[in-house]
Prior knowledge:
Layout: E1 6-11, E2 31-32, E3 35-36, H1 37-47, E4 52-57, H2 62-67, H3 72-80, H4 84-92, E5 97-102, H5 109-115, H6 117-120, E6 125-128, E7 132-134, H7 143-154, E8 157-163, E9 173-182, E10 185-193, E11 204-212, H8 216-221, H9 233-243, E12 246-250, E13 255-257, H10 261-272, H11 279-292
Parallel strand pairs: 1-4, 1-6, 4-5, 8-12
Antiparallel strand pairs: 2-3, 6-11, 7-13, 8-11, 9-10, 10-12
The structure holds 1-O-phosphono-alpha-D-glucopyranose (G1P).
1-O-phosphono-alpha-D-glucopyranose (G1P) binds next to β11 and α9.
Amino acid sequence: xxxVRKAIIPAAGLGTRFLPATKALAKxxxxxxxxxxxxxxxxxxxQSGIEDIIVVDGKNKRxxxxxxxxxxxxxxxxxxxxxxxxxxxxxxxxxxxVYFIRxxxxxxxxxxxxxxxxxxxxxxxxxxLGDDLNNIKGNGKPLTKELIDDYQETGASTLAVxxxxxxxxAKYGVIDPSEQVKPGLYNVLSFVEKPDxxxxxxxxxxxxxxxxxxxxxxxxxxxxxxxGNEVQLTDAINTLNHLQRVFxxxxxxxxxxxxxxxxxxxxxxxxxLDHPQIKDQLREYLIELTKKL
Length: 293
Ligand code: G1P
């Protein structure tokens, strides 16, 4: 079995839900307390054994490139003042290989993944969507690692799903599950992008972590624009499933959706309640606040 060594992080979205904050700043750089959301993704990749990451970015994404680049001036400044803890935080951002490629036209998630084809070549790889975080407190197995472990057993493309409220199916790719080959690992009859709740085949929604065999690229080349007139990754997965098995792995842990204002705020609170510098203060504040609500 080939090892899964490479990851694609699509980050070309405009982030319109966070305007005006995202007018000049990439939405992937919005922090959860003190760490940009995309850094959580990069850390999850590293903890899952990924060696090389490619970020597919768009316009206004220079800040992401700078974040994963060294900053000798800042590092020298921190070193000369003996601010070693801070220096460590800065240096940690460059200890994995992160490459960048630009998607020139925003043609959808499927097209963004296809843009990174030359980087991946003929190997299995991971796709990690930036809005979806898991295991942010770092005390469990990252979801990406769970998928890679499944891949090591089956050799098949596998994506993560999670139960969502039925009225939310139109926000997600949704699977029509068949039998489980082991607890939590489903054979799938079909994959549908953002179905109306009345048409949704189940409540099992795709949540932004995928392991693919390289055969997905040929399929993406030939996938016509679908929902929203964009090339949908979910449509390509549905086609792949007719040629090779594609499994759905049900995730049972905590998922944090940072792609909308309320989800982002909740993630900040949860992470803050675990953050060594502010957790006690935040807990006290929340207790006092709830008394007033
Ligand atoms: C994308 C995918 C969708 C998936 C979702 C997970 O949609 O197209 O299948 O369920 O991510 O967050 P987006 O949220 O980019 O509209």
